[in-house]
Amino acid sequence: MTDVAEGAVLGADGLRRCGWGDSTDDYRVYHDTEWGRPVHGDDALFERVCLEAFQSGLSWLTILRRREGFWAAFAGFEIAEVAEFGEADKERLLADAGIIRNRAKIEAAIANAKVARDLDGGLDALIWRFAADPARPAPRTPAEVPAVTPESTALAKALKKAGFRFVGPTTAYALMQACGLVDDHLADCHVRTGEKRKR
User: Fold this and answer.
1) What's the N-to-C CA distance of the chain in angstroms?
2) Average pLDDT, the chain
3) pTM value?
4) Residue 52 in contact with residue 179, Cβ under 8 Å?
5) 42, pLDDT greater than 50
6) Which of 66, 96, 120, 186 gives 20 to 30 Å between its CA and that of 103?
């Protein structure tokens, strides 16, 4: 198995992955099928903005394992519906063990829905303006993957200017990675190379 510090790890299924992507079954599925692939649509991006905000200070695995609970609690992350949530909904969410019960983050999600609903041009257009250069060299090791970039700093600034909460540069970069605005799969990761499972 390749050392995580050197590059992608060789999984039991014969595929090389970014080290974090081979650490649990939940991460493996997320890494192989979703992370780093382009996400479009205002509601789909609103979900990712919300989940990245809820993840702040926590493990992403904690969020992944509650994703269905979040979907149910937040009306499938339909912006128009969440924007209409009121005090009763806030109390319902604070009592919902299927999500992260953090008042500030719950209130931010509802406030962000109102902002997204009223955004000129839509959330998709705003976020995708900050996509990284697709010709950027692939990172070879985890150490080459940044936590913040000029693009994520600019995206965070634009989101905050629009009225979004819980969208600092680090959170914005995690959003960019998750939604395919940047491809941070390691150079020898099977998702980037298109390598098929070895028989």
Assistant:
1) 17
2) 93
3) 0.92
4) no
5) yes
6) 120
